[in-house]
TrEMBL record:
Keyword Transferase: yes
UniProt-recorded name of the protein: Formiminotransferase-cyclodeaminase
Record GO terms (molecular function): transferase activity
Keyword annotations of the record: Transferase
Keyword Endoplasmic reticulum listed: no
Residue span(s) of domain Cyclodeaminase/cyclohydrolase: 8-189
Short name of one Pfam family: FTCD_C
Domain of life: Bacteria
Length: 215
């Protein structure tokens, strides 16, 4: 069953079970989708409201464009959620390959490496997609319904959680690939993503707190 067909309680039961999948990578995708959905709610309760109608034409278009982009982000997050599970299951199949002869061991080892590289791709792409989505939340914070600024703030908090979770799932695969030429550049990319995400999240949360609970 695809994730989009789950009921909430079914997903939680599946996640809680002894099955190794879904796991952290898929949950990271779900959290990203929740962030996008919260942000979309801000837009849905902004467009065509009095404050929206007072905006100039160019700003209205910006809000509408970002509202549409928010929907696309939700869809992309769900796709990566599904892809993470698919690649993980395929990697697990690689470990089940026969290893009785030297030739079989060689084939199995190569398959595991290829499977691990693939398993790393979904969470890495998710982390990048999430980081880019901060721009969308910034627009919601700036032009969105002021009664929903807390929801935009929560979207930023969830987004950072999705990024951190995705990074963890990249690392768990990258660890066995440290001898590969690309490993160091991926590691540096992860460090940069996490550091920049903290700053973006904190900036949005500060704006939120200044408005909903000023000191």
């Amino acid at each position: 069953m695809r994730f989009k067909d789950y009921k909430i309680d079914e997903f939680l039961e599946d996640l809680s079970s002894s099955s190794p999948s879904p796991g952290g990578g898929s949950v990271a995708g779900l959290v990203a989708a929740l962030s996008g959905s919260l942000n979309s709610m801000v837009y849905s309760l902004t467009v065509n409201k009095k404050s929206f109608e007072s905006l100039d034409g160019e700003t209205k278009k910006t809000v509408l464009d970002f509202k549409e982009a928010s929907g696309k982000f939700i869809k992309k997050s769900m796709e990566l959620m599904e892809l993470d599970r698919e690649y993980f299951n395929k990697l697990m199949d690689c470990y089940k390959l026969p290893k009785d002869s030297d030739e079989e061991k060689k084939i199995r080892s190569a398959a595991i490496v290829q499977g691990t590289v693939k398993a790393m791709k979904a969470p890495l792409e998710l982390a990048k997609e999430c980081y880019n989505f901060y721009d969308n939340i910034d627009v919601a914070v700036k032009y969105g319904n002021r009664m929903l600024i807390s929801d935009a703030g929560c979207a930023a908090i969830l987004l950072h959680a999705a990024i951190e979770s995705a990074i963890v799932n990249v690392k768990v695969n990258l660890n066995s690939l440290r001898d590969k030429p690309f490993a160091k550049s991926v590691e540096l990319e992860l460090v940069e993503l996490e550091e920049k995400s903290i700053k973006r999240k904190d900036s949005i949360v500060k704006k939120m707190n200044n408005e909903i609970y000023p000191s």
